[in-house]
Amino acid sequence: MRYLLTSLLLLLGTFGAWAQKGQLSSQVNTVDNGYNFWLYTPEDYEPQGHPLPLVIFLHGASLCGNNLDKVRRYGTIDAVEKGKIIPTFIVAPQNPGGNWKPERLNNILEWMKAHYPVDTTRVYVLGMSLGGYGTLDFVGTYPEKIAAAMALCGGTTLKDVSPLGKVPLWIMHGTADRAVSIRQSKCIVEALQQQGNDKLLRYDWVQGGNHGILARLFYMQKTYDWLFTHSTADKPRTVARNFEITKDDIRSTYNDLKNKDLNEFD
User: Fold this and answer.
1) Distance CA 101, CA 138 (A)
2) What is the pTM of this model?
3) Per-residue pLDDT tens for 226-254?
4) Is 7 a residue whose pLDDT tops 80?
5) Residue 47 contacts residue 115 (beta carbons within 8 Å)
6) Pick from 103, 83, 91, 105: which is nearest to 35 by CA?
7) Is the pLDDT of residue 259 over 70?
8) Residues 257, 120: contact at Cβ < 8 Å?
9) Order of strands across the sheet with 89-93?
10) Is there a smaller number of Cβ atoms within 10 Å at the N or the C end of the chain?
């Protein structure tokens, strides 16, 4: 009986915490030709209220599968659960395996727009590793729909990267990454530079950074502040360059990650 009472109190405490800062719901088989996903609605969400921005988080290969709870292991949803205030809709889909498919992600985006008051001028995408590939593939396929994006330690499968030049984009990669070579990111940067198509591009190479260290950016306020600076309504489109994310920033963010094996965050 004591165990049941303790469990009930913990459960009520969990729901109470979410009630204070928003609601998290699992969406399974909800979107045709989409992905299963977590949906976070912030505290100030009202069904008939003012439009809210949307953040789409794409995980790496280690979280692929059919157990949606794995997606809460790290990333934007985990950051919110640990207390970070992100006053937007958050969608965190789960890839069952293979490359992220831009069309399937777009189907989720369109479903969100049809069922929730999404500010369509403020849709943001960020991901790392396989999710970094997914971010760039999605943004490069639907550049007109994305206000800004951040791709960490990834690359792209796009044959033509020129559409990436239409979106404020921040690419980051560690120089000591052994899981995904930094060359995958540098090829994109160099291609956009050669095209003279890099006016909206930012990039940083984290000296000595391994593959997993960039997972800390999902817990960093600067990450979201930078994204939220941008809107597709801005004419002309510009990229915010007044934000700096240093190696010291990364290492000092969310110290609890030191207790995890960051090399598994792929």
Assistant:
1) 8
2) 0.90
3) 999 999 999 999 999 999 998 888 888 85
4) no
5) no
6) 105
7) no
8) no
9) 22-27, 37-42, 89-93, 52-58, 118-128, 148-152, 169-174, 201-206
10) N
- Single-letter code of the amino acid located at 199: K
| 42: CB partners within 8 A, 6+ apart | 21, 22, 52, 86, 87, 88, 89
Residues linked to residue 206 through DSSP beta bridges, in sequence order: 174
Q: What percent of the chain has pLDDT over 90?
A: 83
Structure-token pair, residue 52: 């809210």
DSSP secondary structure letter of residue 129:
T
Helix (H) or strand (E) holding 37: strand 37-42
Q: Beta partners for 144? A: none
Overall residue count recorded for the chain in this entry = 266
The two three-digit tokens of residue 53, written as one number:
């921005």
CA 91 to chain centre: 9
Q: For residue 228, give every residue at least 6 positions away whose Cβ sits within 8 Å of its Cβ, in sequence order, or none.
A: 53, 88, 122, 124
Instruction: Quickly count: other Cβ atoms within 10 Å of residue 233's Cβ.
Output: 11
From the list 41, 117, 113, the residue with the least C-alpha distance to 80 is 41
Structure token digits, residue 86: 């992100």
Terminal Cα-to-Cα distance of the chain (whole angstroms): 42
